Amino acid sequence: MSSGLKLQGRIKMLEHTLVLIKPDGVRRHLIGEILARLEKACLKIVAMKMVIPSPEIINTHYSEDIAKRRGEHVRKKLVNDFSNRPVVAVVFEGVSAIEVVRKIVGDTEPKKALPGTIRGDYGHYSFDYADVKNIALPNIIHASGNKQDAEREISIWFSKSELCSYKSIHEA
Ligand code: ADP
After folding, report:
1. Does the residue 146 lie in any domain?
2. Which of the listed residues 18, 111, 165, 172 has the most CB atoms within 10 Å of its CB?
């Protein structure tokens, strides 16, 4: 393979992914810790803001897909627990960033998430606990699940002009 083709391949692997530090993460002062973990993996922040989202934004973010996979009752809880509370929205850029960020974030259920992952190290709640409390499972962070979701989610929280393009020291 020529070096030109190799480079093309590498560039195709560069992805953007959306991370939300959820209201429980913000209230526990975990913003810096979470950003540090992701930055230490050489993932590059290209957009970031703190937002108090409306129910409409949360409803758009958690689309029909979550209702199909987890049930409409879960979507309602997410809208209820997320709306009108500060969250931090961040776009990370990196090679296979979507998969890599999900790996660092860990399993949806903190009870099951492995030590060393964000959800495993900073939480322990279970689906059962969320059911009993009638809340959306508090698990600190959201990260896009695939390319299609990443594109859709980034466009909900950021305009194109808010995404910054620059070379980090690793790339320079
Ligand atoms: P992930 O956030 O790991 O991508 P999902 O997209 O399946 O997981 O679910 C979105 C969010 O909905 C979860 O992060 C969690 O906060 C919440 N959630 C999922 N399933 C349940 C459930 N059964 N009860 C309460 N909350 C849930």
Report:
1. yes
2. 18
Domain-embedded: residue 166? no
Asked, for residue 9, whether it belongs to a domain, the answer is yes
Whole-angstrom distance, CA of residue 18 vs CA of residue 133? 28
Query: Of 20, 22, 78, which is best to mutate to test ligand 1, by the most ligand atoms within 8 angstroms of its C-beta?
Result: 78
Which residue range forms the structural domain that includes residue 95?
5-158
The model's pTM is 0.93
| pLDDT of the residue at 12 | 75
Tens-place pLDDT, residues 63-117 = 999 999 999 999 999 999 999 999 999 999 999 999 999 999 999 999 999 999 9
Inside any domain, residue 88? yes
| pLDDT tens by residue, 145-157 | 999 999 999 999 9
The DSSP string of 87-140 is EEEEEEEEETHHHHHHHHH--SSTTTSPTTSHHHHH----HHHHHHHTS----S
For the beta sheet containing 44-51, the strands, ordered from the edge strand earlier in sequence to the opposite edge, are 44-51, 87-95, 14-21, 141-143
Residues annotated as catalytic (active site), given as ranges: 142
